[in-house]
Design a protein that fits this description.
Elements (H helix, E strand, L loop, with lengths): L2 H25 L3 H18 L9 H19 L11 H4 L15 H7 L4 H11 L4 H8 L3 H19 L2
Helix pairs in contact: 1-2, 1-3, 1-6, 2-3, 3-7, 6-8, 7-8
């Protein structure tokens, strides 16, 4: 791959790494799993980047790759992730600290969201990121109407989980 393509990837990943952290938080239960999943998503993004045509925003494309990677890996095994070797020295991107203390006020919500199925988690995540239903539908590969209906059902489900 060209040096210019590599620079573009690194720049885009730096700008969007917080969305990857949030997806990792939704699909993992501890720091080791979080870091493993973050690395695997980064690798999958890097491998797929040459095929990124720019027809959608990088963040939308990254959501889709990250969510698909997380869902695929955690359906196979919730204990371990199969990873590939990656030249960390050459492609090292400093990982921003993900401060869990700052998110104490949403722990209850995360606990409730962990009880949802994989697609529901993805939908809630994108909704909380203020994505519009058009982008949510595009990312998840469903219709906009279906995304709205699912979100309304999820809201009801979360209210029942949080306040039984």
């Amino acid at each position: 791959m060209s040096n210019e393509l590599e620079k573009s990837f690194v720049s885009q990943l730096k700008e969007n790494q917080n969305i990857i952290h949030k997806i990792c938080r939704l699909y993992t239960h501890d720091d080791d799993e979080h870091n493993d999943l973050f690395q695997e998503i980064t690798i999958q993004l890097w491998k797929a980047f040459p095929k990124f045509r720019g027809e959608s925003k990088f963040s939308t494309w990254a959501y889709r790759v990250a969510l698909n990677t997380a869902i695929t890996l955690y359906r196979k095994s919730t204990k371990s992730i199969s990873t590939i070797e990656f030249e960390t020295g050459r492609h090292f991107i400093p990982q921003e600290e993900y401060n869990y203390e700052e998110e104490e006020h949403i722990k209850l919500l995360y606990k409730a969201v962990h009880q949802l199925n994989d697609i529901e988690k993805a939908l809630v995540f994108m909704y909380l990121e203020d994505k519009d239903y058009t982008e949510i539908a595009e990312t998840l590969g469903i219709s906009e109407v279906n995304a709205r209906v699912k979100m309304n059902r999820i809201k009801t489900k979360l209210k029942q989980i949080i306040n039984p």
